[in-house]
Amino acid sequence: MNYYKYIIIGNSAGGIGAIEAIREVDKTNEIAVISDEPYSAYSRPLISYLLAEKIKLDDIYLRVPNFYEDNGVATFFGTQATNIDFNEKKVTLDNGKKLYYEKLLLATGGTPFVPNMPGLDKTGVFRGFNTLDTTLELQKTISEKKGRAVILGGGLIGLKAAEALRMKGLEVTVVELLDRLMPLVIDQPASQWVETVLENQDIKIITGNTISEITGSFSNPNEVGGVVLKDGTTIRCDIVVIAIGVRPRIELVRESEVEVNRGILVNKKMETSVPNVFACGDCAEVYDFIMDSFRLTPLWPTAFVGGRIAGFNMAGDCKEYYWGTSMNSTTFFGFPIISAGIINLSDEEKSDYEILSQNTESFYKSIILKDNKIMGFVLANEIDRAGIFLGLMRNKIDVSEFKDDLLSEDFGLIHLSDQVRNDLLAKENLSCMT
Description:
CATH superfamily of the largest domain: FAD/NAD(P)-binding domain
CATH architecture of the largest domain: 3-Layer(bba) Sandwich
Oligomer: single chain
Shape: globular
Number of strands: 25
Strand content: 25-35%
Helix content: 10-25%
Distance between the termini: 54 Å
Structural class: alpha/beta
Largest sheet: 7 strands, mixed
Number of domains: 3
Low-confidence stretches: 428-434
């Protein structure tokens, strides 16, 4: 019988976090990892840098080549879990093999959302930009002298794809359905900063529009030749990247005993509604300390920490996930942006919050407060204090005594009272807060 005490379905950040946590507690019992990709775990946030040739292929992997062997992990790569029998504690793979477990972690991640439109089957259409295979195929396509690209989606994934393709010398157009870029991650002023940075690199931005059809080329109707937008505008191109967003991969459990909403429901121990079954990462709705509720937070750090919490609990070391919220950090052509917590407020909500902001010729800062506690922030091109703001936010520190200094150029730990500093030092690693 193919029995493993721990089976992990998924081999990205959550799976790696779980393996390492399990091995900190349990050095000997069997672990198996199942992944439909044939690769060792790699960093999805780095694929745009691989495409732009800012890093080499070997640099994208999260751990050394012998990581699985050194940790006593059996790998089932390039194969897919097709069924889970929670009564028999059995996972069936697409090759017919059956694996049995005592503890199971669902770290299945997300899958790109692709709207239905004519032309999706043409050569040169890439359905998502979140896998190594997509990146390698894009590299091959670019090497065949494809010179124009349209990106559908002005979120973080789409804009990183646009940046990488522009760095490779392609003419790039970004099409976003909403009225501005990165609407879920940053606020309107920061979005304008990003748009300016991209346009200065000759990336064309089209907002309030979308693609209605992908058309073929004159020489070969089966290859991408252009797109038609909803308003009738046509754009000639050789490549179309669909980067609207991702949906939780919950097909394995959608009709099962595991409770799901938009994603798999878990508690702070990352336990699902089925005993001995855990979930983490993009497929799970995890605790958000700002919202004080459970929701989808499809972020690499969230997946990794969630995997560690799940791994510890699977191995019998009780721990809870409590620190996560929406947090994003990225750069576009050397222009850095960090955001966390609540970013955008409706007109009705604004009366309940206080907004501190600075928008100068060289940087933008915004901090959202409620009851003198930081609930969210956006920093653009001046990000040095992000660690302190996050620590204050995470520990729900009353900032009233130094609120007027939060946006000052030299704001730091020196502005905090001894009591506040002691509270943070007791709870946080301040190595990143200087």
